[in-house]
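WARN retry 2 of 3 for item q-0093 after timeout on previous attempt; input resubmitted unchanged.
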Amino acid sequence: MAQYLGIHAGDKFDYLVSMSSAEQALSRRCAALPAGNPRRAERFACGDLNTSLIKTALGRTIMVQFSLVQSRPYSRINLLAGTTGTFCDYPPRLHLDGQPEGWITDLQPYHQRYGHPLWKKLNAQAQQSGGHGGMDYVMNWRLIECLRQGLPLDLTVYDAAAWSSIVPLSIASVSKGSAPMAVPDFTRGAWEHQPASALAAG
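OK item q-0093 returned
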């Protein structure tokens, strides 16, 4: 999502608020363990479901949900909603202003017209290699290609720091009654004029 939104390439995480549900699922599962199992006595500080809302400097919002123990259908909750359209994945579908009700599920014309050049180039190999629909192959190929060619990597240490900071900041927000927590500017202002990576730019 950070790459979709150009985080550190014209936008940045500004602050977040986070809220956790009550914890019941893990305790319930531990209580069902056989008598004498030491894990029956374990207690948990985390809630069953945590929801964090991140506000960016440009006024966009990102929702991140974490659920480790709830029974639910598989979903990555991957949804990108813009001013005139919404894309939702797993399964992939698209809705645009002005179209009839419902989702567009045949995305092949959009892939042909707007698909990323790297995906087009590697699609056959990636599908053959598997791994999350081929995306693992593409990401590994791109990293190795950058190292071989001496190109800047698509992700920087500042990206890693910002993305990783969401976990401790969410914990801090929950502990303070969902108080807003500022996300540090790890780039020291460079996010305002730093160009998007070659990969994100397509």
